[in-house]
Structure formats: C-alpha cells, structure tokens
Design brief:
Helix content: 25-40%
Number of strands: 14
Shape: globular
Distance between the termini: 46 Å
Bound molecules: pyridoxal-5'-phosphate
Radius of gyration: 22 Å
Number of helices: 14
Structural class: alpha/beta
Largest sheet: 9 strands, mixed
Length: 409
C-alpha cells in the first residue's frame, strides 16, 4: 500500500466553484426535460435575478463579455466614439469598445482602492471635453465620449457618487462592469443598477456561476429589448407574436445580431446559485476579515481597502500588495514561493495600457497611467472562495508571513 507523507498538505487552488447536489439535480432535471437551450429556466433565472438585483429588466446571456458588448450596442456606441475604461481591469471591458469600432480611453486607478480614479475621469473631462446632450465632445480628437465603464475591482464599489455626477454633468452614460461585484452595494443600491446598464459575469470563478454566462441588467426597456433582439441574430421576438397566423416558422431579421443567448442548462445552475448568493457572500466576508485581521500585522504587505461599510465589498478577490522595498524578492518569486508551499495565486491585473495591443495601437507608455504602472508589480491575489475553511486562510497567512520573514530586506 502506498501511503502519502503525512505532512504533505493538499494544494490549495486559487479558485474553486461551490457546486452542490442541488445544482447537479437541477441540471439533470433540465437534461431530462428535453429542453436544453433558451427556454423556461432562462425566463425564470431572469425574473429571479431582476428581483434580486432590484432592476426592472434582466437579460441572460452566454457571457459577461456579451452583456458588456450588448450594453454598448444598445446605447449606440459607434466608430467615431470614445469610451472611458479603467486600465486596471480584465480584457473584456475594453475589447467590447473595440467590437463597436470605438476607442477605449484608458484611465488610471485610485491607488487606495485600485478602482477607476474619479480624479482622472474629472481631469480628462475638464481638460479636453465639452458637455453635450448625447456624449461629451472631446475637443482634441473631435470624438464623442459616449460612455464610461466603471469596474468595481475585486467587488469593491467605485466612488459612484462622483462618477455619476461627472457623467451626468458631461452627458456621458455609465455602463457598470459588475463582473466581480455581485452583490455589493453603493449607498444601499446593488451595484450594476446605478448606471444605465450593468453587466454581471457567471464565469466559473465568479461569485455565482453558470459555467459560462452573464446578465445584463437595466431599468431601460428599450435597452433590454434591443439587447434581447441582438442576443439572438437580430431576430424580432415580436414577429413570433404578431404573425402567429403565419405559423411558428415565421421570423424577421431586424439587424445583424449575435449568438449570445444563455442555455437552459446554464440557467438551471444559475437559479440555484442565485439562491445561495447571500450565503456565499457571508462566507467571503468572513474569510476576508480573517485575512485582514492577521495580515495587517505583517509589515511587508498591504491589505486591501474594505470600503465604507460592510456592504461595499463583495470580496470576489483578495488583492494583497507587497511592500517591495522591504523584501529582497520580487512578486514573481513571491508567487513561486507560495506555490512551493502548495498555494495557488493570481494577479489582477497587468494594466491594459501595458498590454501589447493597447500599447502599440494607441501608443501608451507605462507612465501615462502612473498609479496603475506603479501598483502592478506589487499585486498578488490570494485564494478566497466559500469552500475555503478558516484554517485555509490561516495556512495562507502563515505562508505569506514565512516568506516575508525569510526574504526580509
Ligand atoms: C470575468 C470578467 C468579465 C467577463 O466575463 P465573462 O463572463 O468571462 O465574459 C468582464 N470584466 C471583468 C472585470 C471580469 O473579471
């Protein structure tokens, strides 16, 4: 018989979804029902989600990226436009601007929160834009600044009071990237419902998951209708109702749409996951508090900002920052030391303006967005998910402290 060494702790992965018997049963039920693609479970998931988020409409899609894309499409972003995007985000936030042919104007992050810096947004608008009815006019480029896409990084609410006030003053629409934010709030309102539209993601590592999936939320019926039509080849849904005398085979194409609809299999998962969202959130908050309570005693690291109140953070990510001047190793080595101790990590994010595509296409230098460039080499995201036990947090903290001690400058 082969015995494992008793002191070998199992690898603690960076992320793991919480999938229980109820999710498995719901998916099996869907498979047995004979209806796999968009159908009754999607309708139900949309209704449940709208109710949970406090939004009038919810459109279920096959990714969060699709939700961001359809939001920009529905508000009419076009090739002559500019959209303000924080550099500290995932690829999706800016690439959907490129899908519309528009230009993403990358903005710096607030060094405390890593979120879109309202000062940077204000400086851009005041220095080079005139307020307009539909979008601000950028005097330097002649483009219309149609929208701003705040990302609540890690799930921490952006300064929505200032972002909304500036956006309103200049005629810029706010499309929230809430991929990390379910279900954190700003002044009592669920993130994603403050702007004209919000895009949630149900990717495997997000706060609730459908494997792949997303949800567009909005109070604007025209945006919801347009997104629904464009999510399925631009086919008019009304045609099915209006022309029933022509038979169920009849449809009309109103625009060259996309193929972004969610399956009922995914929605079956989502319905159950959404019921568990508040429990997941409580676990994430508990684990994050435990991390911060211990890591604030370690001088070589900086703990993440936790927001104005308990509700401001979903704790999707726990982003630690290294005080590099106190350490003899860099972030890459720190990550491999954690891996040697059986702990998975990630980095959120290499700022967009430092990626080859955005750097080369728009001619950015790292120093153009100094906060993002300065903070990037310090970032390490630690494991944080509801399946973790308190003892897993303690183990990560012990490993971090041990590495800091061993490699102290
Ligand atoms: C995950 C993510 C998305 C995209 O979501 P998908 O469902 O993977 O398409 C968008 N923005 C951010 C910040 C994300 O983390």
């Amino acid at each position: 018989m082969i015995t494992m060494p008793t002191d070998a702790e199992p690898f603690l992965p960076f992320g793991l979804p919480s999938i229980g018997e109820e999710e498995i049963a719901a998916v099996v039920d869907c498979l047995r029902s004979g209806w796999l693609t968009t159908g009754p479970r999607v309708k139900r998931f949309e209704a449940d989600f709208a109710d949970y988020a406090g939004s009038r409409h919810a459109v279920a899609l096959n990714s969060g990226t699709a939700a961001l894309h359809l939001a920009l499409e529905a508000i009419g972003v076009g090739p002559a436009d500019e959209v303000l995007v924080p550099a500290m985000t995932f690829a999706a936030t800016a690439e959907v601007v490129r899908y519309m042919g528009a230009r993403p104007v990358l903005l710096d992050c607030d060094p405390d929160t890593m979120n879109l810096d309202a000062d940077a947004m204000e400086a851009f608008l005041r220095d080079q834009c005139e307020p307009g009815e539909r979008g601000a006019l950028n005097r330097r480029t002649g483009a219309r600044v149609e929208a701003v896409m705040p990302v609540h990084v890690g799930g921490l609410a952006c300064d929505m009071a200032r972002i909304m006030a500036l956006a309103n003053e200049y005629g810029v629409l706010v499309v929230e990237d809430v991929a990390h934010a379910l279900p954190s709030r700003f002044q009592g309102r669920m993130l994603g419902t403050l702007g004209i539209a919000g895009a949630f993601s149900f990717y495997a590592n997000k706060n609730i998951t459908t494997g792949e999936g997303g949800m567009l939320v909005t109070d604007d019926g025209e945006i919801a209708d347009r997104a629904r039509i464009m999510s399925l080849h631009g086919i008019s849904q009304d045609a099915w109702l209006r022309f029933t005398e022509q038979g169920a085979w009849y449809y009309e194409i109103l625009a060259p749409g996309y193929k972004y609809n969610m399956t009922d299999i995914a929605a079956a998962l989502g319905i159950v996951q959404l019921r568990r969202a508040d429990d997941f959130w409580a676990s994430r908050r508990r684990l994050a508090r435990r991390y911060s309570g211990q890591l604030r005693e370690v001088p070589e690291v900086q703990i993440p900002a936790s927001g104005m109140d308990e509700d401001s953070h979903s704790w999707h990510l726990y982003v630690l920052r290294l005080n590099l001047e106190m350490l003899a190793i860099d972030r890459g080595r720190f990550i491999s030391e954690l891996k040697d101790r059986g702990i998975g990590t990630s980095v959120h994010y290499l700022p967009l303006h430092m990626h080859p595509y955005y750097r080369d296409t728009y001619g950015y230098c790292p120093e153009d967005l100094p906060n993002a460039a300065r903070e990037y080499p310090r970032l390490i995201t630690l494991p944080l998910y509801p399946l973790m036990a308190d003892s897993d947090v303690d183990r990560v903290v012990t490993a971090v402290s041990d590495i800091c001690h061993k490699f102290r400058n």
